[in-house]
Amino acid sequence: MTAKAKYQDVLDLGEALKIQNGDVSEENGVLKVKGTAKTQYDKNQLWDKIKAIGGDNPTDIMANISVEDTSVFHRHTVKSGDTLGKIAKQYYGDASKYQAIFKANTDILKNPDVIYPDQELVIPNL
User: Which of 53, 86, 88, 101 is 20 to 30 A (C-alpha) from 74?
Assistant: First the structure.
């Protein structure tokens, strides 16, 4: 199996995340991946997928992923059923960090218990 075939799920995720300036090559059994993610969260998703396939320190892939917008961790569009706690759990792994999201969005949110579908929330770097 080629390294490209082994890491095809990473390449597919890169397409789904709309990684910009992407470049993929394979040399001597090592897959070289380069591109720019919109946010740190997107970059983390790619690394999580790489580690899920190749382990914590894979030797058959080299990834150089930069981040376009380092001012935020991510931007989230609210969906029906979302709460700030649920969103905090998704991005930080801890629902109690919802206050950080609320504070970063006080320009559009007046109450942490009231959010609406289609609002775009800043998910701040912690």
Answer: 53
- The number of angstroms, rounded, from the C-alpha of 100 to the middle of its chain's C-alpha atoms is 18
How do residues 82-100 score in pLDDT, each as one tens digit? 999 999 999 999 999 999 9
- Please, are residues 65 and 36 in contact by the beta-carbon 8 Å criterion? yes
Please state which architecture CATH assigns to domain 74-123.
Roll (3.10)
Q: In 3D, which of 37, 35, 44, 36 has the Cα closest to residue 90?
A: 44
53: which 2 tokens? 């396939």
Residues of the chain with CATH 3.30.70: 3-67
CB 61 within 8 Å of CB 90: no
Strand-by-strand arrangement of the 20-27 sheet:
20-27, 30-37, 61-67
Per DSSP bridges, beta strands 20-27 and 74-77 are unpaired
